[in-house]
């Protein structure tokens, strides 16, 4: 009902600017304006016009009025269409068609699993990615994992260089001014790029390996443990040709090196995936503040005792020449 009211108002607004035919005896005249096929009489001061001989008064005049009425109604509908925003809605519907949930439902999901191996303060972060499509379709594709390392962990760049030389992993630090000796409370989050490799035990899988280490944390007053949360990484994909999986799950483009030893920059697709775990949580043992006096005292006594033993051994077994 609201749309019909708007239509009627628009139609009435347009009609009031059009000439109105008026019956005067046996002839028709037009008020307020001329129409195609009508001429003004010799008296220019008159506001009433009569049809010329070139335009018959019968059915031709009625046809013109009918055509004009159709035009008025069409214009009113167009104005109503624009006011209601149907044009933009239709354009949006056509542009959003490729990402429709119904189309995405036909695409195979990308599964990412992140886990931590080993015990103690030195761990290995293992990331596995599984595609629903066969590996034959993805032979021209490369996978890059952008891993965010929280402040409670660190990655040794010298260790990464050694692993690259032995062809164990293809990872490189992105963050600059990185201090591996800094404690947790003086550190910031860092980034590592890992070029994933095909998994020999899974046809349509990739995996990446990264060694991580715990940083020192502040002692706590009550609990002797702290928690480190490792969030899921960004999954970047680059293919030499188009694949349906790119159209389904690509979210944005990210600039990154095309390969580990390449200086060329490629536009990687940031892929949407389904993680097996929301994140990885690590528990780190920390000291208690109530043990501060005991730890400092024992450390000082051991330092003095060891220093004394070293000096005695030097003077007893050492050979000094003057």
H/I helix tally: 7
How much helicity do the residues have?
25-40%
Give the overall pLDDT as a whole number.
Answer: 75
Low-confidence sequence ranges: 20-67, 83-103
Summarize the main sheet: 6 strands, mixed
- Tertiary shape: elongated
Q: Which terms summarize this structure?
A:
alpha+beta, 30% helix, elongated, 30% strand, 6-stranded mixed beta sheet, 6-stranded antiparallel beta sheet, 322 residues
Q: Would you kindly provide a written description of the structure presented here, covering whatever features stand out?
A:
The protein is of the alpha+beta class. It contains seven helices and 17 strands. The strands form four sheets. Strands 4, 5, 7, 10, 11 and 16 form a six-stranded mixed sheet that branches. A six-stranded antiparallel sheet has the order 8-9-6-13-15-14. Strands 1-2-3 form a three-stranded antiparallel sheet, with no helix packed on it. Strand 14 and strand 15 form a beta hairpin. Helix 1 crosses helix 2 (59-84). It is elongated, with a radius of gyration of 40 Å. The N and C termini lie far apart (114 Å). The model is unreliable at 20-67 and 83-103 (pLDDT under 50).
Summarize the structure.
With about 325 residues, the protein is of the alpha+beta class. It has helices at about 1-15, 60-85, 85-95, 100-105, 155-165, 245-250, 290-315; strands at about 20-25, 25-30, 50, 110-115, 120-130, 140-150, 155, 170-175, 190-195, 195-200, 205-215, 225-230, 235-240, 250-255, 265-270, 275, 280-285.
Topology summary:
Blueprint: H1 2-15, E1 20-24, E2 27-31, E3 48-49, H2 59-84, H3 86-95, H4 101-104, E4 111-117, E5 122-130, E6 141-149, E7 153-154, H5 157-165, E8 171-173, E9 190-195, E10 197-198, E11 205-214, E12 225-231, E13 234-239, H6 244-249, E14 250-257, E15 265-271, E16 274-275, E17 279-285, H7 292-317
Parallel strand pairs: 4-16
Antiparallel strand pairs: 1-2, 2-3, 4-5, 5-11, 6-9, 6-13, 7-11, 8-9, 10-11, 12-17, 13-15, 14-15
